[in-house]
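so the lab meeting is tmrw and i was supposed to have these ready like two days ago... anyway. pasting both below. for each one the top line is the aa sequence and the line under it is the structure tokens. i havent really looked at them closely yet so no promises
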Amino acid sequence: MEDKVFGEINSDNLKSVHYTEEEALDVLKRMKVEQSLGPRSIPELSSIATVSTNLQLQCLPSVYCLQDDPKKITKATPSVTNSNTERTRATVSYDEESYRRMIWENNVRYIEEHNLQHSLGKHTSTVGMNRFGDLPNEEFNKLKNGLPQIEAVHSTETSASVSDESDESAASESDEINNELTTAIVDWRREGLVTPVKNQGQCHASWAFSTTGAIEGQWAKIHGNLVSLSEQNLVDCDRQSFGCFDGALWSAFDYVMKHNGINSAETYPYTEKEGWCRFQPDKFTAKITDVKRVSGGEAGLEQAVREIGPMSVLIDASLKSFQFYEEGVYYDDNCNGPVTDAVLVVGFGIEDGMNYWLVKNSWGTNWGEAGYIKMAKDRGNHCRIASHVFYPVVEGTN
């Protein structure tokens, strides 16, 4: 079908603002848009993608909205640019638009049904529309998940002094023995060991974000200086991993050990794509001497978080209930598959009588509870959260 051009896009005919500029660009990249003008070329770029909390939309998360007529919503595919007027033209593909609208509407129905069931006490957390609203769950997993195959193979490697104790059997035995609920609250954010939530964007680099988060915490604990470290340093330079095509926690920690440090995010900024290694040894920000693997299931994870600090872990983040998680203690009976995402456990607590792990993700602040998720704790190693647990050793730590 031949594309039709409806007209020029500018700040006058765009709809209400709900996304930040970074998130709007993230949406465009997902639609494989080549935006040659750069992030500052179109005025009020954050307006290009909107999600209304009352679900009365005329604009989908992945499109420009040119006119009031919903039939004339266009796919974001810039074809002609003019740097003087800072405008761009867009073409429409009705087939793609129809498909995305269908997916979005299905997800809206899922959200409404889930939250209705939550109000009836059938779920412990709510879900909400977010930037992944026009993605089917399978496509979402291709976009954000896929890490575990590498980690599962190498998680018992000894090249980085990682323990090879069994994780699954230890988790089962420990959970049976230590079945009493814990009421203590730990939140390492309050102690200054956790940097703000970051956004990995289109790069499958959760492994790098989890690694830097753990090192940031231990470095701050020992040296009293919390500095955001460079995920890009790992994406570009860790040759045992595969950059934006997934990587492994053990490999990332091993890289930092063998290269005597890692640069800061300021020195080596994140670009959301793999490039040439530009590590500057003379400007290292943090070093580690070893990496430890925690065994003992959830009891072992709890002890490690309480006594040591934030922990790098792998979880199953593949379900639709995780994709649209909004708030509350997350529990899904089906969350027991292969691990798909690397995250950072920064604490634990209790809410409405339910124990939870406080988990920092790397999907931006508009996902979950400002970028965090509270995951069910002491419920049979839910989402396999205690199966792969790592932390770095900084001189002076355990």
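ok protien two:
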Amino acid sequence: MYIVFYFFVFSLSQVPGSSSPRPYTSPWALRLAQRETGNSPSFPQEQDQTHKGGQGMAEDMELELEFTEDLQLTDVMRHRAQSLQQKGQKRQDGERLLLPYEAVYRLDFNEQELSFSHWNVSIKGPGRLSVTGISQLWTPDLTNLMTRQLLEPSGQFWRSAGDPEDAPIKCLEADIQEFGERIADLAKVRKVMYFLLAFKDGAEKDSIKCSLVFKKDVEA
């Protein structure tokens, strides 16, 4: 016994100008057909998500690294200066001793293909921040720091007494641009880089924040 079922689905509305009902087409089938023919309709929600995703990708292309104090290396440097003073000895010819208002800081590069973008520095109240880079791989527990290992130019940032709180930090723009570019170049061959940060003219560590913003290099 053969049982044949015929299913016909008709729309409730009629095609204008015709007395015959038009076949019903599901939205899913219509969308599939449009995509196959390349005539996909616009979907505002999907466009919105794509736009937001693009913004996220742009943010992912930047990397901000904050200078952090290396307490152990700072202590080693301080001990070296104090030891020479207590023993009445002279420093090694060309040696750079840590000054009382200085500390050793570091940048750790978890990514190395970088291009310099800009500095982010904030100083509360009057004071001056000096950032000096160390050009070679160095730690004071292995070798003494020598003046020839210091990068030039250094980064100089300051806020004068009487400057409004919302006033931009003063700096030597050409120097900090060149300095930032040199740091980005050195980052390509290093995982870590050390710096001497000097807090002068009333500046204190707790009132200063300093970081570098890089752009991530994308291979073509």
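from a quick look at the 2nd one: Residues 10-58 form one domain. The mean pLDDT is 80. will dig more after coffe
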